[in-house]
Design a protein that fits this description.
The complex is a heterotrimer of chains A (435), B (289) and C (319).
Chain A: H1 2-24, E1 39-44, H2 50-60, E2 64-69, H3 74-86, E3 93-97, H4 101-106, H5 119-122, H6 127-130, E4 134-135, E5 138-139, E6 142-154, H7 155-161, H8 169-182, E7 190-191, H9 196-205, E8 211-214, E9 217-220, H10 225-239, E10 244-245, H11 251-258, E11 264-268, H12 271-278, E12 286-290, E13 303-311, H13 318-330, H14 332-340, H15 348-354, H16 369-377, H17 390-407, H18 411-429, E14 432-434
Parallel strand pairs in A: 1-2, 1-3, 7-10, 9-14
Antiparallel strand pairs in A: 3-13, 4-5, 6-11, 6-12, 6-13, 8-9
Helix pairs in contact in A: 9-10, 13-14, 14-15, 17-18
Chain B: H1 7-10, H2 15-42, H3 47-50, H4 62-71, H5 76-108, H6 114-123, H7 129-142, H8 149-157, H9 160-173, H10 176-184, H11 189-218, H12 221-226, H13 235-243, H14 253-274, H15 281-285
Helix pairs in contact in B: 2-14, 4-14, 5-8, 5-9, 5-11, 6-9, 9-11, 10-11, 13-14
Chain C: H1 9-14, H2 28-54, E1 57-61, E2 70-74, H3 78-84, H4 87-119, H5 126-134, H6 141-152, H7 158-165, H8 178-204, H9 209-216, H10 221-232, H11 234-249, H12 253-258, H13 271-281, H14 285-318
Antiparallel strand pairs in C: 1-2
Helix pairs in contact in C: 2-14, 3-14, 4-8, 4-11, 5-8, 6-8, 11-14, 13-14
The chains are: A alpha/beta (435), B mainly alpha (289), C mainly alpha (319).
Amino acid sequence: MRSRAFAATSALIAVGALLVGCSGGSESGSDDDASSGPVTLEYWAWGTAQAPMVEAWNEAHPDIQVKHTDAGGGSDSSAKLLTATRADNAPDVSVVEYQTLPAMIVGDVAADITEYVDDDLKSQFTDATWGLTTFNDAIYGVPQDVGPMAFIYNQARLDELGVPVPTTWAEFKTASAAVRAADPTTYLATFNTTEFGFFAGMAQQAGGEWWSVDGETWTVGIDDEASMEVADYWQDLIDNDLVKVEDLLTPQWNQEVNAGQVLSWPSALWAPGVIYGVAEGMAGQWAMAPLPQWTPGDSKVAYQGGSAVVVTTSSKHPKEAAEFAAWINSSDEGADIQLETGQYPASTLGQTKAETSDPPLLMPQQTDFWQLASEIAGNTIPNISWGPNVNVAQSAFQDAMAKAVKDGTPLSEALTATQEVVVEDMKTTGFDVSE
Amino acid sequence: MARPTLAHDTERTPFMSKALPTAVILIGALYCLVPVAWVLVASTKSRSELFTTFTFAPGTGFIENLKDLFAYGGGQYVSWAFNSLLYAGVGAVLSVVVSAMAGYGLAKYQFRGRNLIFYAILAGVLIPGITLAIPQYLLMSQIGFAGSYASVLLPVIVSPFGIYLCRVFAAASVPVETIEAARLDGAGEARIFTNIGVPMMLPGMVTVFMLQFVGIWNNFLLPFIMLSDQDKYPITVGLYTLLSKGSGEPALYSIAIIGAAVSIIPLVALLLFLQRFWRLDLISGGLKG
Amino acid sequence: MTTTTTTPTTTSTGSTRTPKKRTRSPIAPYVFVAPAVVLYIAFLLVPMLYSIYLSFRGMRLVSGGAFGKRKSVFIGFENYISALTDPEFIAGFGRLAIYGAIAIPLTLGLALLFALLLDLGATRAKRFSRTSIFIPYAVPGVVATLMWGFMYLPLTSPFSYITRELGWGTIPFLEDPWIFGSVANIAIWGGVGFNMIIIYTSLRGIPSELYDAARIDGANEWQIAMRVKVPLVTPALVLTGLFAVIGTLQVYGEPTTLRPMTSAISQTWVPLMTIYRDAFVRDDLPRAAASSVFLAVITVVLSVILLRLTQKRAFGGES
């Protein structure tokens, strides 16, 4: 008797352990009660804009309730999204960076939402922006924010050193040399080996095309002529000690920005908020200008960063999910929240609204900030396409660049190495890649 | 400890042979304390002081940092601390129960498959965590547990090392004669275990509890892979996310530092308190068993 | 409580053989081990087998086209071949060897040294030292790395501050080849205390008569330590050594947390980091599974070799 009772207890512990799980594990994926009661959507997104946007949506749409989860920043979140999809555990809707969107499509994460999208929504975005989420005529997401590239610089220090703001990359080199000459402890900018998006943006500006599709065939151009020129350009600056090789946003870098020893950050429209976050004391001293150009008089720039909202293939409510994705990125309420929280909206409505809002906290003196921003946004290069394995490219690029800098080998060789890894990976997967 | 006074404890030694060992071990103590002292000092520094004043100069931002820490993400730090406590506390208790039962069973009974079970469990020590974490995640998802508290709790309950230790403890501290005597008195096996086995194994069980508690508390990979909702993160993963914000979002160093400082205090206290109950001697004693 | 450390447990294990079959239920032992076995199967064995299964599959394009979907198909040993011919993955083992060559001997050596010092009558401030050295055990690896990371950064490092004041410049803790020592140091810092306690408790279990005998023979404290104490705590050293080796093969958290602070640590710095990258950055779970199966095999092989080698020694020392 005793041992039977004991056996029962023992079994209870094992079962109990599983029950502990049940009570806590009831919120996987999407609920299947479409017919009864309101639909609940799960939404993965990071950044301060998301919570108020979701709140606004939930208030306006009692029948479709959205639960927001912060699953980490861009790279952590997309890694989790892929794994969650394999595990059939993905949310209904998620924010995805433009450059990882193709990987999400071939990874079967992002669903084709063409049938849920009308022309009305499409008309809310410029063609260049809309192109970021359209592949082979299928729509895979709604653009949320964009990051047209721009030049953010320490105006006060440049004035003090008597260095003019560069408008071309040739002038950027001259300015770097002038800064070094005027104050040997100071650099105009840093070059860092991890900023894949920045380098890709510069290459695109120079006419490079890292991925392109022709019918069924991919062409990879990470080591194309334009990109190699960009590599050689930075190589020259590094070799002559005109820029410092250093990672961004490390304590060291932040310190140098605060001390006025790093005077600019060629990046994108979102940068003022980031600099303000690490160097509050610099408010009023920094300003924004258009990114330097390869050809004098040109004004084209690429995007660096920015993200879209996708509906996942795991979602059981793709129609409602697409509705949510469209609303937060094209409604009045959505645009207001984006501007309040420092996102540069992808929609033309948001961009128009931006023109009348206050300049970023870092540069209150620059009253024409948003006009300038909208001008820059109007000059972005259309039809930039990212490949299906940007994740592979990015990690290969970062390691190859870091190695090149460490070993003193040319940056151009790092690009060649990245190209090889990317092509090899695409071939293994089964893509048709032209040589 | 009940060891009688040792002859060499009282022996007189020349000054050098007394000062040298003391000096060496004090250097060791210093080495271990410096980073802890640093994090405590750094937690008093305001954001601007952190990178500008001398490392070991106390700052003026302690209260401010504390407020920032508890305000971050709407009080996320408190949930992280609570989660860590939940994972480590509940996980360690369940683990001790399962390990004690298995260890006792393996040590005190002769049965078919005993060696197979024992060696299979022992081999579990050798499997790298990540080898398991990925398939565990996929399997957890299959049954709909991924992302839940259970997904972090369940895999840590079975601890090969804990079972191994409990077997050693049971073998060493529960005499067969006592068990036999109880059987003659007509006690059932379960009763013998709970009334005789458990009290005798208690010091060993405290040891396993501590090892598991610290092990789960320090665990990073499993919760990092299993969880997507930041509100369910334990402290380790939470602090990591503060440090690794992507470009476009600056890392929150001062919050991470005070978060680290606050998180180690209770654990150190618990460890110092439970230290007296440890039976680590048996860990190595049983190796050849 | 009395310490029974050195009593060979083989005897007590042997005596568990129950002499007679009594009326007791034969299912009792199975009931005792059932929860552990069930959980073991569910959370160790099944995932392990699943890993092996996954390692023979690959994500391949099935529907064709520039944006075709990738699906999981059987690809034989392709993952193993590509992992083992990946120079970066193999180089990771090389870096791991350098790291281990620093971390393992120093962790064990310092732990043994401190344990012997604690056991020495002449040492003062024992309680304080023992507690201080043990404290790092309670500090999670992520937090330890955060603290040490700041002690390495030129801007906040007190060590570099001192060397700068002395006119020697900044210590490049976070650059090659210093980075190996810097990462190893974090592991040493975290591991010395725990290992010290294990060895120390073993030392406390040695009957003092053994020392008296040695002293009568004219041995000094140093000789006693080397000739009597060290051989007697060999089992403890073997165990701590085994854990150190396993821990080394599974290094992941420290370099990963340190990575944002330095470019000397690549994404494939150690094997587990490559595995993580393959699984989560490159979305290649099968390849990650193959690599981790390989890593598990290496761990088992190394552990068995270590136990074989040291067991002979341990027995040799005792006879």
